[in-house]
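From the pipeline queue, job 12 of 40. The input is one protein chain; the requested action is below.

Action: predict structure.
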Amino acid sequence: ESEGESWCKICRIGRPERSKHCFQCGRCVEKRQHHCPIFMTCVGRKNLLWFLIVVVILALEVLFYSSIMISPLFLSSGPIDSHIVSGNPLFLQVNLWGSFVIGIVTFLVCVVLAIIHLVHIGLNLTIQESRFGMKEAYFRLW
């Protein structure tokens, strides 16, 4: 073992300090934040910036589409006319409000996710290091 490396008993390789083994990916990841089930990969040193960019774009996109979803309720002069849409106008309004609420909740989840990762970047900690209260920024499982 060289200075700053540890041995992964699963991969059977030397790994840099602050690397963690991911059992879902089957490999060691440098400065591993978490395994993302949506992207089916680990978020770590090499792709953390791209992960944050995607989360921020997703948040803005959800906010944009939520505002489009709710706009017919505010732009119409009265109840949504039945000649514009087929079906029950009340059903349409409930669907629009429901979609808007789901969009806002998704937006808030994305914002919280981005803030959590930005705070960890600012503190130079990984999610695991902060979760387990590691002061020296190194957590060893093996």
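Job complete. The mean pLDDT is 80.
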